[in-house]
């Protein structure tokens, strides 16, 4: 994350942290023990938050209707168990091809699907998942995670509470001590580490980096549709490819755009050699499979259409949508602006891409 002057939040960061999704939560019918069944719970979920953190607000709506037993809470959307460690806003962007408001989710307090989801013990599990992700991001940015490991207990508590309560200014107070800034300004990033001298780094006290931590989610669509709103529901996580890979720019004298970042993360989509590169680790899905790629088009109403890059893609697939923090951005937007303004608190940029894989 890059903050504004004197560590102040940018306007876009304030919008991201203030963003929320209206949820309508239904108790699964198998766990209803009263007549009539309880009405759904209506709450606002922070985009940068996590579903398990909402349980203390949700449970009072359903506690009198639950069967006896120990709570093992999990959520589902149209039959798909939701991965609790993915930010709520990212889940929404990924699974709702046409934004659904309120977003209708089902909550379970029993029968945790241990074969499909990593166990979650409530807030503690979410907290340690968040801290581990922050360590990973620090390693990408600085080459080590010493600043995270050396955080005082009070700073760690303040950092987590700021995320839990959606307090951006409190978050930035601690974040400024972690020295995770990336070289850049409001409009572009110069991510060539060789241009940063030792004296520059010593003067600022900040380790400059050429890498941006990115988590890319590729939703595959195997039906021949014209509009992304017609995409079939996701009924299995096998339809989602998950790529956890830093983006690094190589070369001088050119602005690095969101389109360049996509080319770096998904080089298999392009027929020409990408002008940027990623870390040498091959992008893999959670199942360990290398993700497939495709050609280009976008259903965006504003900004540059992906169809402008159709010549760069292989035949038979289309990128139909790119979505970040609920936004369908122009592809020519400087990636520096995206990284500065749209990162999540754990310092990963979460990008959702819809790819149609139907062969002509």
From TrEMBL:
Superkingdom of the source species: Eukaryota
UniProt-annotated location(s): Cytoplasm
Magnesium among keywords: no
Keyword Ubl conjugation: yes
Keywords annotated in UniProt: Autophagy, Cytoplasm, Isopeptide bond, Transport, Ubl conjugation
Segments forming domain Autophagy protein ATG5 alpha-helical bundle region: 123-179
GO BP annotations listed: autophagy
Ranges of residues in domain Autophagy protein ATG5 UblA: 16-109
Compositional bias segments (type: Low complexity): 284-299
Domain Autophagy protein ATG5 UblB residues, every copy: 211-353
UniProt region (Disordered), positions on chain: 276-303
Any one GO cellular component localisation term in the record: cytoplasm
Subunit organization: Conjugated with ATG12.
Family membership noted in the UniProt record: Belongs to the ATG5 family.
Function: Required for autophagy.
Name of the featured protein: Autophagy protein 5
Source species: Salvia divinorum (Maria pastora)
